[in-house]
Amino acid sequence: MRTRRPSRWLAIPVVGVLSLALAGCTQEQLQGWLPSTPGVTNHVDRIVGLWVTSWIVLLAVGVITWGLMLWAGIAYRRRKGQTGFPVQLRYNMPIEVFFTVVPVILVVGFFAFTARDQAAIEEPIDDPDVSITVFAKRWAWDFMYETQQGADGTPEQAVYFQGIQGQELEGGGVDTEQLPTLYLPVNSSVEITLESRDVAHSFWIVDFLYKKDTLPGVTNHFYFETGDVEGVFQGKCAELCGEYHSLMLFQVEVVSQAEYDAYLESLDAEGNVLADEAAIEQFGQGLNPVTNPANQVGGEDSTPEAPADQEGE
Q1: Are 122 and 223 in contact (CB under 8 A)?
Q2: What beta strand segments (E) does 138-286 contain?
Q3: What would the DSSP string read from start to end of 28-68?
Q4: For residue 214, what are the CA distances in angstroms to 125, 141, 170, 282, 283?
C-alpha cells in the first residue's frame, strides 16, 4: 500500500534552501544590485524600495505566466491513442478577464507608486543648509558654494571651484586626484542648482541613485538631505556630450561640518571668491571675474591638452 508523505515534510528542504540563499545575500543583492550606500541621502531607501518591490511584483507575474503556460502544455497535450488535432478551445472568459485586469492593475500600481516617490524626491526644501550651483561644461564641472543670501533668497556672496576634465593615466584609468570634487556636509539639507554652459549634460551621482539633466537656458534643481555617512562617491555626465564625454567625471565627498567649513575657507584663501551679485552673475555667464575676466570658463583655457596620442587628430 502506497503511503502519503505529509506536505509539510516537502516544505522543510525548500525553506532550508531559501534560508541559506537569503543568508548569503550581500547588501548589494538585497537592494537589487543598485550601486548605493544605505543612508547616504534621505532618498536612497525610497528608491531602493521602489526598485526591489517592482522586481518582486514582476517576478510574481512571471511565475504566474510560466505556470499557466506549463499547465496549458500539460493539461491539453495530446493523449496516448489520440489522433488529429486536439480539441480546439477558445473564448475562455475567466482567462481573458484575468489577462486584461491584471495588466491594468500593474500599470496603474506602478504609475501610482512611481508618481508618489517622484513627487517626494522632487519636493523643494525651504531654507536649505547648503546651496550649491553646479555648472556643467565640456568636459568638466564648476561648483559655486553660496556663503551669503539676500532677503529674497538670491546669492550675494559665494566661493567657487573650477574643474578640469579627467586626466587619463598611461596604464589606464583616470587620475582621481585631479577630478573636480563637490563637498557636502553630513546631516544637512542640500539644494543643488544645475546649469549648463554649453550643451546638454546630465548630472549623475551614482550612489545617490539620482541624475538630472543640465540644459543650456534651463535651470534645474536637485534637493536631498545627507545622512551621517561620510565617504567619497563617484559622479559623471550621463548625457553624450562630445569627444571627451567619458572623461567628464567628478567626485562627491561627504565630510563633517568642520571639514566642510574648512574647505570653504580654503577656497576663500585661494581667492576663489565672488564678492557681490555682479561677480556671481559674471561667473554664471561663463566669465571668471577674479583671475582673468577674458577667460571663458570651460573654454580652451580651462580644458587640459589632449593626450599625446590624440594630438593632431
Answers
A1: yes
A2: 140-149, 155-162, 181-185, 189-196, 201-205, 210-214, 220-225, 231-237, 249-255, 273-274
A3: HHHTTT----TTSBTTHHHHHHHHHHHHHHHHHHHHHHHHH
A4: 20, 11, 31, 19, 17
Report CA-CA distances (Å) from 166 to 224, 298, 304: 26, 13, 9
Cα 194 from Cα 214, distance rounded (Å): 6
Q: Count Cβ atoms below 10 Å from residue 196 Cβ, excluding itself.
A: 25
**Contact of 229 with 186, CB cutoff 8 Å:** yes
Residue 180 backbone dihedrals phi, psi, to 5 degrees: -60, 135
The tens digit of pLDDT for each residue in 49-66 reads 888 888 888 888 888 889
- Among 16, 32, 284, 244, smallest CA distance to 146 is for 284
Secondary structure, 3-state, 240-262: CCCCCHHHCEEEEEEECHHHHHH
**Assigned C-alpha cell, 8:** 509539510
**CB-count exposure of residue 268 (10 Å: 0-12, 13-18, 19+):** middle
The mean pLDDT value of the chain amounts to: 82
Q: For strands 231-237 and 273-274, give the pairing.
A: unpaired
Report DSSP state, residue 123: -
Closest C-alpha to 256, from 219, 228, 236, 220: 228
- pTM confidence score: 0.76
Residues 6 or more apart whose Cβ sits within 8 Å of residue 146: 131, 132, 133, 155, 157, 158
Gap between the Cα atoms of 175 and 36, Å rounded:
23
16 pLDDT higher than 90: no
pLDDT of 293 above 60: no
DSSP one-letter code for 233: E
Complete domains list, the chain, with CATH = 13-121 (1.10.287), 130-304 (2.60.40.420)
Contact status, residue 203 vs residue 211, Cβ threshold 8 Å: yes
pLDDT per position as a tens digit, 266-287: 999 999 999 888 888 888 887 5
